[in-house]
Write a sequence for this structure.
């Protein structure tokens, strides 16, 4: 059973845990109904560190992604993303891409990429960052206002639409920020070094105090309409 870097915090907050895809994750902190209401009315925080995280780097990285996942994958502009099967692919630079997979699916994705690289002869590197990175999800109608307190980016939907990924400083740490809404509910993932996960979580919790920011478990996220796809 795998534990996320934020597991000790969830324990201290009194979370009830569940096991999913070999990860021990918070199921609920208070009640599912209270957490759903908080997500719909204000802003909540979730630990989504189990999601697989791969980087693909090299001049031919885009072509390798096409060969591995979808020959019809559109050419992505920098900071843009696309959903390909159970995975999400984001272009961070012309030669650098980030691949987000469902929990415990990163090995399968890496194998597809490695096979494509071997078949092409191109110099492209694939790095599995899953266990070296914490992933914090911020959800709710107040999440853009709250994020503006801890990050200098413009989170207006025109500047930061759903499916966008940008690297920036969050609470004075380097993070990858991905907008990944749940239906019409705005949501952002903050991905950064595992060693900084607890600091980022606690600082964001403090910054969100005026909006009543609270943690949320997997049961409420699923009830809001998002399930981990099977891949």
């Amino acid at each position: 059973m795998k534990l996320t870097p934020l597991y000790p915090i969830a324990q201290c907050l009194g979370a009830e845990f569940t096991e999913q895809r070999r990860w021990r994750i918070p199921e609920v902190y208070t009640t599912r109904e209270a957490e759903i209401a908080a997500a719909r009315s204000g802003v909540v925080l979730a630990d989504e560190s189990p999601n697989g995280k791969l980087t693909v780097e090299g001049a031919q990285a885009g072509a390798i992604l096409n060969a591995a996942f979808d020959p019809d994958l559109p050419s992505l502009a920098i900071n843009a993303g696309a959903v390909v099967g159970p995975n999400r692919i984001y272009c961070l630079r012309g030669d650098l891409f980030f691949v987000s997979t469902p929990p415990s699916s990163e090995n399968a994705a890496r194998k597809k990429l490695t096979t494509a690289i071997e078949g092409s002869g191109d110099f492209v590197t694939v790095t599995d960052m899953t266990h070296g990175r914490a992933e914090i999800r911020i959800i709710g109608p107040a999440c853009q206002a709250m994020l503006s307190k801890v990050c200098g980016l413009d989170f207006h939907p025109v500047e930061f639409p759903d499916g966008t990924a940008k690297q920036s400083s969050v609470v004075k740490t380097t993070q990858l920020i991905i907008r990944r809404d749940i239906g019409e509910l705005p949501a952002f993932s903050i991905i950064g070094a595992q060693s900084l996960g607890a600091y980022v979580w606690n600082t964001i919790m403090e910054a969100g105090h005026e909006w009543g920011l609270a943690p949320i478990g997997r049961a409420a996220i699923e009830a809001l309409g998002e399930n981990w796809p099977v891949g």
Remarks:
- The domain at 52-128 is CATH 3.30.70.1400 (Alpha-Beta Plaits).
- The mean pLDDT is 94.
